[in-house]
Specification:
25% helix; alpha+beta
Length: 363
C-alpha cells in the first residue's frame, strides 16, 4: 500500500489536511501524537462551552526533544492543531491504527539507594563508553529503537484513550548535526524514510542546544557534574512544570536518542543524582519487555513518572517510559493510573560510515 492510499488515524477526521513540517514529523511519534490529540480534545471542549471563562493552564506533559531535531513549541503545535494540520499515515504499517492504550502495574518507588544505584550506573557508563568509537568527520551516529505510546483520541464528539503499537525507529545523524536520516513508520511519508538535513521553519540552520544537541555540541559540555547540572538548570529555566523535573527530563533525553561522548556519559548520571525527588523503581520494563531497575522522577503537576530503565546486572541503559501514577481532572482524567504514555527501547547505538548504513551492512 502506498502513502496516498493509507488510512489516516481516526482522530484526523476526513484526513484533508496538510502534513506537519519536517520538524514536527521527526519527533518520536508517541508523545507528539499524544500532545496533538490532547490539544484537539481541549479545543473541542472549549468550542462546546458557550461564553465560559478561559480554563486554567493544564499540566505540561513531557514534550519529546530527540537529538536529531528541535521540537515544535507548544504554541506552534497548538496553532497546527487549530489549523487542522495532521500527521499523515504512510500505509501498510498499522502504526496509525488505534488500539488499546498501553498499561502496566505501577512499580513501587523509593528514595533509598538512589545515590548508590546512580554511582553504579555511572561506573558502568564510564567502563562501557570508553569502548565507544568517537565520531569522525563524515561518519554518522546510528540509533535503532522500538517505540509505542498511548494518546488521547478525539473523534467527533467522542474522546477516548487509545494506543499506537510497537514499531521500529532508525536515525542517522552527522557529528555536527546538519545531516541525517529518519526511518519511522509513524511519522514518515515514505517507508524509505526522510532526510533530516533540513533548515528550521525560518530557513535557518539549526544551532545545537541541550534540547537538540549534536555530537560536536556534547563534546564541548563540561564533565563536572555540578557545573553540568547548573548549566542544565540555567538553559532550561522556565520550561516544564518545575525546574527539577525539566532538568531530569533533559538528562533523560540525552540518554535516549543521542550519543554522549565517553567523558560526558558518566557525568550525566552523577548530575542526575543531585536532582531532588529522584527515586528508584525496583522493577520496570522497556518497550520490548526487558525487565530492569529504573531511575525515576514524578512530575507532581502532571502525575506522570518518567523512568530510565537499566539492566539490573550490567547497569546498561535499556530504554525509558512515562507512566501515569496519579489521576488528573478534565481531559487528562482519561489517562488513568497505570497508563504507559510513552515507552522506548534502545536496540543499537553505534557509529557508521555512511547515511542509511546499518551495522549489519558493515559486518
Amino acid at each position: 500500500m502506498t502513502a496516498n492510499t493509507s488510512r489516516n488515524h481516526p482522530a484526523e477526521g476526513d484526513g484533508s489536511a496538510e502534513l506537519l513540517s519536517a520538524t514536527a514529523r521527526d519527533l518520536p511519534p508517541g508523545r507528539h501524537q499524544f500532545h496533538k490529540e490532547r490539544l484537539m480534545a481541549q479545543i473541542h471542549d472549549m468550542r462546546q462551552a458557550e461564553r465560559t471563562p478561559a480554563p486554567a493552564p493544564e499540566p505540561r506533559r513531557r514534550f519529546p526533544r530527540p537529538a536529531v531535531v528541535l521540537p515544535l513549541t507548544a504554541a506552534a503545535l497548538a496553532t497546527a492543531v487549530v489549523a487542522g494540520v495532521v500527521l499523515s499515515g504512510n500505509g501498510g504499517d498499522g502504526v496509525r491504527d488505534a488500539g488499546p492504550a498501553l498499561t502496566t502495574t505501577i512499580g513501587a518507588a523509593s528514595s533509598k539507594g538512589v545515590p548508590q544505584l546512580l554511582d553504579q550506573i555511572s561506573l558502568a557508563a564510564a567502563a562501557t563508553s570508553t569502548s565507544r568509537p568517537a565520531v569522525q568527520p563524515g561518519q554518522y551516529i546510528y540509533i535503532k529503537s522500538k517505540m509505542a505510546d498511548s494518546y488521547i483520541s478525539h473523534v467527533g464528539d467522542k474522546t477516548s484513550l487509545a494506543g499506537h503499537p510497537l514499531h521500529t525507529r532508525q536515525t542517522w545523524m552527522s557529528a555536527d548535526g546538519t545531516k541525517g536520516w529518519l526511518i519511522d513508520p509513524a511519522v514518515n511519508r515514505s517507508p524509505e524514510g526522510e532526510t533530516l538535513s533540513l533548515p528550521d521553519e525560518q530557513g535557518n540552520t539549526r544551532k545545537p542546544t541541550l534540547n537538540g544537541p549534536s555530537y560536536d555540541y556534547l563534546t564541548k559540555l563540561t564533565t563536572d557534574p555540578d557545573k553540568l547540572l547548573a548549566k542544565i538548570y540555567r538553559e532550561t529555566k522556565g520550561q516544564g512544570n518545575s525546574p527539577d523535573q525539566e532538568a531530569f527530563t533533559t538528562i533523560g533525553d540525552l540518554l535516549g536518542e543521542s550519543y554522549p561522548p565517553a567523558a560526558l556519559y558518566p557525568a550525566l548520571f552523577k548530575a542526575a543524582a543531585k536532582i531532588p525527588g529522584v527515586v528508584v523503581v525496583d522493577d520496570a520494563t522497556d518497550a520490548t519487555g526487558r525487565h530492569g531497575v529504573a531511575v525515576a522522577r514524578l512530575d507532581e503537576t502532571s502525575g506522570e513518572r518518567e523512568e530510565w530503565i537499566f539492566d539490573r546486572k550490567t547497569h546498561v541503559f535499556l530504554g525509558e517510559r512515562s507512566v501515569q501514577v496519579r489521576r488528573n481532572s478534565g481531559t487528562d482524567a482519561l489517562i488513568t493510573p497505570g497508563t504507559v504514555v510513552f515507552t522506548s527501547a534502545i536496540l543499537e547505538r553505534t557509529v557508521v560510515d555512511a547515511i542509511k548504513q546499518t551495522p549489519a551492512a558493515t559486518s
